[in-house]
Amino acid sequence: MSDQILSDDVVVPEDALCALVNRLLEVGGDEEDEEGSDNGSPAEDSPLIDAARSGRISEATSLLTLLAEGDTVNQTNRDGSTPLILASEFGCTQTVSVLCAAGAAVDQANLGGDTPLILACEEGHTQTASVLVAAGAAVDKADNIGRTPLFLAIDNGHLAIAQLLISRGASRTISVLGQERTAMGRATRGGHTALAAWLTTSEQWITPLHHLSTMDAARARAHLRDGASLHAASATGGPTPLSLARAIMLAAGDAAGDVASRDDGSTAAALVLQAARPWSRDTHALFPAAARARATELLITGHRLSREPRFAPGAVALLDVWVGWVMPHAVTREEK
Questions:
Q1: What does the DSSP 8-state code read for residue 7?
Q2: Tens of pLDDT along 129-172?
Q3: Domain spanning 14-206 has what CATH number?
Q4: Quick one: which of 1, 17, 8 has its CA closest to 63?
Q5: DSSP 73
Q6: CA-closest candidate to residue 127, choices 161, 154, 102
Q7: CB–CB of 279/327 below 8 Å?
Q8: Which residues contact 8 (CB under 8 A, 6 or more apart)?
């Protein structure tokens, strides 16, 4: 079998898989070998540890399927690293996804305090970091001296990862060995001008929805349906999600922020502009739960009115007016 990363459709030969399982049983048990280890882990790495480190996704998947449930997925090597920590360090994103789905502890650290997210961010593996964050990894969990994933990403100039972490609420201030450090200070000292410029631009972005430029449409839709404010600002006149959406669309060439040419909701900015419109059948799905419930109640009321005998001659017209004029004025995003 090649030591290179394999694709999802590679099939591990049965005899090779049996050999791997047999080796796992030999070296992955509770008994120490002749040399032993300081933390009670085997001196020789198990097949799952090896597969995770090298990103052999098919092999890792097969092993996880065959092994007994329990703490196997969180087994450690001599430095306390789990399969997930190793796969994250080397940017093996598919393997990370498999391990997370198998119940790997996303915040378990090695002896140095390095979590999977810390190592992925330090090494600049953006997609791997994104998978870990989506799996619930703590964005502010620090290593043994107080460094967080964000600050390790900044120290190494990884702009995309810094944007990801800050959009998920990562703190811009930490304390390392009793000394306070700021994200801007680290970026400036490290000569990362693009990163420092973005940190300045985003300093007034106080909600996740402010991060439209790095957010996909699915996440923006979720925030809008959860009630995210379109007008949130850190101060009067400061940037809001709505103003940022308009700027993004203008920069993309849509005059006056008009989304007519992108009305399919394919971008986060387009969805924010749609959500800013009055309620309608088209915008209903982007309104918060309370507003959607209010719209449902009003629609039922409108149907009942249209069925009353006194409105019989103009029942259809009445319902059209109700849905097209009354409801857009009666339903707002701020419904409680």
A1: P
A2: 999 999 999 999 999 999 999 999 999 999 999 999 999 999 99
A3: 1.25.40.20
A4: 17
A5: G
A6: 161
A7: yes
A8: 57, 58, 94
pTM: 0.76
Q: Is 179 helix (H, G, I), strand (E, B) or coil?
A: strand
Q: At 11, list the tokens.
A: 């099939």
**Alpha helix stretches (DSSP H) within the chain:** 14-27, 47-54, 57-66, 83-89, 93-101, 116-123, 126-134, 149-155, 159-167, 183-189, 193-201, 217-225, 241-251, 268-275, 289-306, 315-321, 327-330
What is the dihedral sign for C-alpha 63, 68, 69, 74?
A: negative
Token code pair at residue 305? 């009115």
Structure tokens at 91: 């940017």
Residue that is written with structure tokens 């994200």 in the block: 183
**Tokens 């059948």, residue?**
281
**Would you list the domain boundaries of the chain?**
14-206, 209-276, 285-330
pLDDT at 255: 45
Q: Check if the beta carbon of residue 202 is closer than 8 Å to that of residue 210.
A: yes
DSSP state of 206: -
